[in-house]
Task: structure prediction
Amino acid sequence: MLPGISLILGGAASGKTAFAENLAASTGRGPVYLATAQITDEEMRAKIDRHRKLRGSGWRTLEEPMDAGRALAAIGGDNVVLMDCATMWLSNRMLAGHDCGEAEAELMAGLSLCAAPVVIVSNEVGNSIVPENALAREFREAQGRLNQKLAAKAGLVVQVVAGLPMVLKGHLP
Result:
């Protein structure tokens, strides 16, 4: 049984999404994929198409790059939600000029109102060098704060490295 919120962290191409998909699918509930990416170029289109194909047709997809909190609040308890990913969602909000604190509050409110268990994928971006430009540094700090808030609220936190899950909080079902 999954807790209300599970947070799956990892670096780029670490295997975190595949792990999260398997975790959500193991519940036997109707899987809902809350997609936060936006198609901005052909590379992103190909990545999204590849993810859809790997996921298969059993998933209902909600594309919500900005208002994930509202989308989460509307999902029924007979489902399980995979939000992929909090990093892309935060990036979208920041690039649109939204206040990070308000955005976080909206997301946390949506998580509190969601009747279904939610598995959130997020990148751990603090393990590299200090970025050279102000926007990248601001993003890194905002992402770190968001991950900390999500981890505090989550009953299960797993870091995936090289496809291997390491439980940081809670227990795998």
